[in-house]
Structure formats: structure tokens, C-alpha cells
Design goal:
2 copies of one chain form a homodimer. Chain A has 19 helices and 11 strands. Chain A is an alpha+beta fold and about 600 residues long. Among the domains of chain A are: about 140 residues, Butyryl-Coa Dehydrogenase, subunit A, domain 1; about 120 residues, Butyryl-CoA Dehydrogenase, subunit A, domain 2; about 130 residues. In chain A, the strands form 3 sheets. In chain A, strands 3, 4, 5, 6, 7, 10 and 11 form a 7-stranded mixed beta sheet that branches. Chain A has a two-stranded antiparallel sheet with strand order 1-2. A two-stranded antiparallel ribbon of chain A has the order 8-9. In chain A, helix 5 runs antiparallel to helix 9, helix 6 runs antiparallel to helix 8 and helix 14 runs parallel beside helix 18. The radius of gyration of chain A is 24 Å and the shape is globular. Chains A and B meet through helix 9, helix 10, helix 11, helix 12 and helix 15 of A and helix 9, helix 10, helix 11, helix 12 and helix 15 of B.
Amino acid sequence: MTTYQAPVRDVEFLLNDVFEMERYSNIAGFGEATPDLVKAILEEGAKFCEEVIHPLNAVGDREGCVLNDGVVTTPTGFADAYRRFAEGGWPALCADPEHGGQGLPLTIGVVLSEFIAGANMAFGMYSGLSRGAYEALAKHGTPEQKATYLPRLASGEWTGTMNLTEPHCGTDLGLMRTRAEPRGDGSYAITGTKIFISAGEHDLADNIVHLVLAKIPGGPDGIKGVSLFVVPKVLVADDGSLGARNAVSCGALEEKMGIHGNSTCVMNYDGATGWLVGGEHKGMRAMFTMMNAARLGVGIQGLAQSELAYQNALAYARDRRQGRALTGAKAPDQPADPIIVHPDIRRILMNIKAFNEGARALVLWSALREDVAERSADEDDRARAEDHMGLLMPVLKGVLTDTGFANAVAAQQVFGGHGYIRESGMEQIVRDARIAMIYEGANGIQALDLVGRKLPADGGRALRAFLAEVGAFLAEAGAEEAMAGYVVPLGSAVKDLQDAVGWLMKNGTANPDEAAAGSTDFMHMFGLVALAYMWAMMARKAQARLTNGDGDRAFLEAKLATGAYFMQRLLPETKAHLARIVSGAAPVMALDADAF
Amino acid sequence: MTTYQAPVRDVEFLLNDVFEMERYSNIAGFGEATPDLVKAILEEGAKFCEEVIHPLNAVGDREGCVLNDGVVTTPTGFADAYRRFAEGGWPALCADPEHGGQGLPLTIGVVLSEFIAGANMAFGMYSGLSRGAYEALAKHGTPEQKATYLPRLASGEWTGTMNLTEPHCGTDLGLMRTRAEPRGDGSYAITGTKIFISAGEHDLADNIVHLVLAKIPGGPDGIKGVSLFVVPKVLVADDGSLGARNAVSCGALEEKMGIHGNSTCVMNYDGATGWLVGGEHKGMRAMFTMMNAARLGVGIQGLAQSELAYQNALAYARDRRQGRALTGAKAPDQPADPIIVHPDIRRILMNIKAFNEGARALVLWSALREDVAERSADEDDRARAEDHMGLLMPVLKGVLTDTGFANAVAAQQVFGGHGYIRESGMEQIVRDARIAMIYEGANGIQALDLVGRKLPADGGRALRAFLAEVGAFLAEAGAEEAMAGYVVPLGSAVKDLQDAVGWLMKNGTANPDEAAAGSTDFMHMFGLVALAYMWAMMARKAQARLTNGDGDRAFLEAKLATGAYFMQRLLPETKAHLARIVSGAAPVMALDADAF
């Protein structure tokens, strides 16, 4: 059985020391978010995740969800835990005070979402999808829709879903067949089948707010004819009371590799009543609002499961005794040394630790930009932050989930044969983490989005801004001798990245296959550079605090050592990525489809 | 649901063209193994694997094994398929004619083991472990033991097991607690608990021949006091008939991540009667005979599951339609193109294809050396072949299972969300393939064996022989202009390997942590070089046949393209491995165990 401890201390170092959250006090919600309040919230959230949600992680995996006569029963304890979650005000944390929210920075919500996804990924998805639905309605809904749905989503009384995928269309939503017939009274009759709908039906809340993509007959072909509708499970009267069941039902639960605690539904819409959100044929724009929030959330799941895996592998490595250190017994009074003495075990632990702490920084660095993008009064600041989010979103989603999964596998390996046995809980982490590479846009799609859309957008403005920021840091920190071990590798990796960008721009324009063939390598290379920048920033702050003699010396020294490990052991991979990128499309496309 | 087609054609190219099996005709068994006979055997074996064993793969995963009152029932169809397997003479294929075997080359058995492990890994383990038991008894057993057990193992009437692991000791067998008390009549009373015993109890055969490691009281401490015993499930009378049940029983079945069709048992020995195999305290020597066979078998499982995953991902990529080719619609009459048009999908398929075909070559190249090592009349040839097997065994086990698993995950990704659903069968491949990285020595142990034992053994003789062989090839093929695309990258990778060896020798002698910290990187780097050598050999043969105008042009051209892909896209990883190796132990060991 696994244990989980929310990384509160690491978050505080990032928010207070590295990113200096107090600098954002001009943005709504930050004024109230004093370090003391944030600390109290994080500690309370950590306690809830560790003591209430995490013990249900194995239960959820073992029991799964059960469908009976259209009713989905979640695993033992989920409904009670969700009730406490809503009563604790957690869904309202960052919601608008106008809708009963606490209005705290989105960044604080992001931190909590890591804790929740680390403690119990399947459980966290019920509330995680509500947040996406909240955002989409808050941005694109009518005043009536906002009044009807937002307070109930913020209170957690109701939850939300996203309905995109159909059996024959996932990535290519233009192939969608679900139809929305106008009824003439402002409502639409929605008919069709959606699959892979997370939290599509369950027993946690009184109502479920489905956001559904469908085509209005007579509209444009393909993706341009897609509209978004809000379709509540239970119809809502004008006074907000619940009325009749809508004609939407769960036809089946998918049998999945993991996240068994979450209900993944086939949803049947049989002339269900829905209302247009955000204008006819403007569905994709509104859906992207949800998808962006969801993509960051999924990237965080990758990090969170990697953290859960790491903590348990570390505990096992300290506890399990096999063999002796190659340099002589470390515990001569015992029959064997703990396996953490072995360099190859330590390599695994350091790989994961260096990734997780860098990734957490990248998440929070980006979350702060999201706050700026959503809430700043300064238009230029908002535009820059939006550029950042657009560029980094595919990287956060793709890299954190690919590497998070690989880390879960590596952590399982530390357990030897015991990691393959269900009881250890490690194999569940691997099975759960696997989905994050797939949903909300498979990682290959993220890579293509990065290379094909985000890089060239606005003449490469977002990338230039990123490189300018890193360049300015390198220029400043490059003058500090103690920073050489971080600045030199980062500078070299930035050079690799620039070489890759140059190659992609030169060759990808003439033949888009040239860019697509290197897209996954580029995404991971970009991720490594971004993580290295995070580590260089963290190292600089740790050095400064050590020089000043303030702070926890052991914690800061561990940061320096872990950052140095990242630079020497993980960052060199940029060279292999570059070699693959510049080998181009020819080797990839050499065979005819029939010749495989 | 998955399908499987045994790669007969690829094997024929390797055996007949690349490795010219007819050159081995001076070795026992090869004379009979004419190309026609081999072809007939492979096709018959392929048919059995495709039509009988593979359809049981999903059944086995879903049903698993059931323990009731000490009796283990295997999944529906397993017992019948096993009966047909034994009746077909497959367990006897390479066994000694003296024991009723067909005496064919071990290489042919190795080919069949890939087919079986690709069709149904869990099923294949029942017979796979018998082969290890056969080898150990054939080499170390008394004449009476051979007469009692070998004919029944060769006929498949009985199966075998290996009993090493105990709850508190896996890698470190010196900690073993199982005891063997001499009874004075030549037999021993074996008492203890063994865990993770694959095929420890089942309903496929009349008897199970357990080979069990245990300590004879009063013997040396630690690993030097371990002896090997043969402990039959049912005692055998002098006339070969089955008598009373021995005091050995299955106490529990492990609940595992995968390979549910195989029974993984906790075995309780309660004063069970056993007989010494291979001398007191000589258990590890005898067990290594089994482990070497088993390690090759496990490496093959990695390849086999990678092949199964590849075939199904390829079929899906040709069938599933989403989006359009970036260079313009390829199927304009259809609503979308098949996803194989997308470069990132092709990258995944080519990665796996280039690995699988190279790995299959590496397996057969090594299997032929195993035949030489086991059967050649020439002592020098045997010694050279043993060097080869010793050096390559950890590489085959570690690299083929690590990369085989990664390939299964990548192939699952091709299916998008459908790959996460049980029905596709792809997630089973991932769960099944995962164990191969762990059992028969976790891959970190393989890496340590390579760097710490196999590299320095006999003054580095085995490595020198390997490098001399590759060097001779490079010198010869380097003169051929058409080979430049293969020879130049291979030469560069060999140089990286030599740099790594130099660094390890220089630094690892003074501080073994320096070698251990780079061991996994070195193992994978070695694997890449060995695979690149295989590809260069295959490309050369394909070129020669194309020049001569004989053979299947499309097949040979695909080999050249796939080999070129390997050189450009997979081989560059040696540079990143080298960078990590020469960064040494310092970053890996920088943190105290308490500072993580």
C-alpha cells in the first residue's frame, strides 16, 4: 500500500523564494493571498489529500465504478470524501466571489490540483472536470447560464464534463456526428453518442453539467460547423430547483487499464435538451477554453503521479535490504545494506527527483502567467502571458505526462518483483499515469500543436519572448562564478534548441512533414530547456539564501545537488533530440504504408 | 482484440542469408536442419502459435489462474492447448535424442520461443521454465536424476520450475532461509517458503519438477552455502511411476499487474523430499545454467511482446482514419486519411520496427553462438562462444526488455484512447511486457553484471573479441561506397563505446561506484552498438542480394530503409549515454540517503 505526502515545503520555496509571489499583488486575488494564508490553505489541503483522499486510491482501483440501470455507483468512500471536499470549500477556492468563490489566485488552485492528483488521480478527475466546465461557462455562457450553473459548480454541488469524442472521431473532431436540432424555443435537441466521458455519470453530486460538442444541421462542414451546448443531467427550473431528468444517460462504463475509480462513460444523447454556449459554430473556441485548463491539469497529473511513485520508491529503497555497497558495507551490523546505497537505485531516484522538482517549478511559473493572462488589468501583460501559456501548454501536457509515466515505471522497478504485485500499489500508479499521455490530446498532437502552430504563431513572438527571458537570465547569472555549473549547460542546451528551431523553420515551411517528423523530439527538447531554466533559477535562489545564511541549509544544498544532477544527467539528451530532428522526414517517411 | 503473425519470413532471411546457418553443419543437429526442414518446422510452429495459443492470450488475462484447496486451475483452454503442444513434440525440439528429443539446433528452439512468447507470453512460461530445468539437470544431475526427469520434461508430460526468491531476498540470495536437512538416505528434507514461483502449481501436467535453492545446515554463510535440489511435486518410484504427493504446496497465488494466465505461486516446502543436484554448496553454479537460459528467454519475451504490439499498432494505423496528411489528402475520396500518413505515427512504427528486426538478429546471432558453446567439438570455438554469451546475455536481457516494454507503450499510444480500453488488447501487452524488466535479475542487476563482471572478465577478452569482429566488418564493408550510410554511423557509435569502456576502466577500478553509476547507460549503449552491427550486416546482405537481383525486392529495400532509420534515429542516443557515463558517480551519489 502506498503513502503520500503533499510537497508543501517545495511549493513554498517556489512561491515565496523563487517566483516571489508578492510581486503579483496588483492582480486580483493575490492581495489576500499572504504567505501565511497560503501556508494555512496548503497545509489544510495537504492534510485532506493525505488523510482522506489517498487512502481511497487503492480502494477505487480495486472496486471501480459500477453501472446498474443507468445509475453509476462510485467506489466505497468516494461519495463521502467528495461531500467533505465540497463542504471544505475546495471547489470554490479560485472561483469568482460573484458566484460564491473565494477568488484566490489560480496558482493556488493549481498547487492543490497537484496534491489531489498525487493522492488520488481518479478521485481528482470528478472535480477537475468541473473546473473546466466552470471556466467555459464563465467565459462563453449567457448571463442566465452563468447564474444557473456557476454557483453550483463553485460550491461543488454539481460537477461538469466535457463531451468531445465519438467512436469514430477523437483527434479529428470535424468528423463528428452528434446533431443539435433547434427547437425554436432557444433550446436544441441533442442526439448522438459520446465516448470516453470522464465523470459522465456518478453518485457524487445532484446534477452533472455536460458541455457537449455537436453540429447544427445546415452549418459548415467539418470542424467549422461544431457548436458547444450545455446539457444538464437534470433540467433546472427558473428558480434553480431541479426538475425532470434530461434525455441523456450513461450507456456503458469503459473497462480501462487504470483510473478505475473514475467513471469513464459512453453517453447517449436521445434528443436531450441543450442550450447553445458561445454562438453557433463557435464550439471549438469555447471548447479550447476548457481544453487549455484541462491540458494543464493533465500535465499536473503526470507530475503528481511521478511524485507519488517517487515517494514510495524512496521509502522502499531506504527500507529494503539487499546486498552490500560496492564501496564497503554501510550497515555492517545488519545482514545487508538498504538498497539506496546502490548507484543504479540512486540514479533512478535522482532522475525522478530532478524531474519532479523542475516540473513543479515549471507548472507554478506557468500558473502565475495564467493568473496574469486571466486577471491582469494590463493588456500587454495579459498578451505576453497568453503567449507564454500557448507556447508552454503543449510542453507541460506532453513532457510532464510522458516523463511522469516513465518515472512511475522506473519507481516501480526499484521494488523489484514486489513492484509487479498489486499489493505494493506501484503497478496502479503505472496504470493510472498511462492515461495522461493519451487524453486531452494525445502527446503526438501536443507536439504537432507546438511545432506547427505555437512556434510559428505571430511570427514566432512567443518563442522569442521565452528565449529573451532565458537569455537575460543567462547574461546576468553568467557573471556569477558559482552559477557556472548551471549556466553553462543551460546555455549549451539553449543553443541546441535554437539550432533545432532554425532547422525546423528552414525545412518545415517547404515541407510540413519535415517539422512533424521532429515534433515529439522538439517538444521534449523544449521541455528539457525549460526545466533546466527552472533549475538554474532555483539554484541561484538557493545559493543566495545559503550565502545570506537564512533558510534550511540541508534543503537548499539538496536543491543545488539535484539541480547539478539535472544538468549533468538529464539535460544532455538535447543532443540526441537535435540529431534526430535534423535527420528530417526522409528516414521516417521512407517506407510506403504497404511496405511496413 | 489483438492478432499475431509469427515473423517467419524475417527469421528465414536471418538464418539463411545473414547468418548462413549452413556454415554450422559440423555442429550436432545442424546437419539435419536443412532449410526445407527448418521452413516446415517454423511454419508449423507459427500456425500453432497463431491459431491455438494466441486466441488464448486475452482469455488468460481475463480469467487468470484460480487456487482452490491447493489446486491451481489455469484459464479455459490452456490445458487443452498445452496437451496439443506436448503432443506436437514442441518441448522435445532441441532436447537430446537420448532423452527422446529431436536434437535440433538450440537456435530453432529460440526462434520458436519468440513465436510462443509473442502469441501468449503467460502460456509460454509453463514450457519455458521446463527448458531451464531440463538444462540444469542435463548438466548437473546424476545419471539417475537424468533418467528419471529428462525424458518426461522433453516429452512435456512434466514441467519444471526455478525456486530462488524468498520474501526477504531476491537479488541477494545469500540471505536465503530455506533449509535442507540431510536425512541420511541420500535425500534431504526441504523446509521454507519461496515466492514469485512461475508455474509453481497448475493443471497442465502430471508432475512438476521443482529446482529449489536451499542451505544445508553447517555450510558456509551467505551465497557460498547455497545448494540446489530437485523436488518433484509427486514422488517418483524407481520404475518411473508416480507415487505419493511430496510435502510441497502452493500457499497462494500472487495478484499481479499482468501475465495473469501464468500461475505465480507462493510455494511452501514443509519437509519436502529433495535430492541434491550438482554437489553440496554448489547451488549457484547449477542455478546459473538455468538463469542463463532463462535470461535469454526473458530477453526474447521483450522482443516478442514488442513485435505483437507493433503488428497491432500497424494494423490500426492503416485502418483508423483521422485528419489529413500535412502534405495533402492521401485518400481524398474518404472523410479522412488513415493515421499512418502522419509522420509522428510513422516515427513510432519505424522506431519499433527498426528495433524489433535488429533485436531478432541479435537474438539469433547469439543463439547460434549458444549452439557452438553447447555442442561444438572444438574447444576454442566453445570458449569463444561462451565469452560471447557471457558478454551479450545481460545486454539481451536488459535492453530487449526495457526497449520492448517502451515499444509496447508507444504502440498503445497509436490507438489513442482506444489503447487504454481493455478490449483493444494493447494495455495487456504493456502489463505483460512489464514483468520482463524485473524477473530473472532486474535490469539494473543485468547492467551491473555487464559492467562489473563481464567487461573485466579475463582481462576484457570477451569485449576485445566483440570489438575485433565489428572492427573487421567495418574494415571490409567500409570499402563499399553503398555501405557508407551504415558503416559511418556504426563506426562512430563504436568509438563512443570505446570511449565509455576507457572511462569505466580508468575510473571504475579505483571506485566501483563510478562504474555502477553508468552501468545502465552502458548496457543500453552496448545494445545500440550491437543492434547497429546487426543492421549493418543485414543491410550488406540485402544490398548484395539486390545487386544480384535475387530475392524479394520490396522486402530487401524495406530492410535497407529500416536499417538507415536505425542509424539516423536510434543510434545517436549513444552520445547521450556517453555524456551521462562520463559525468560519473558524483552527481548520482551527491545526496546523503537522508537528504532525498
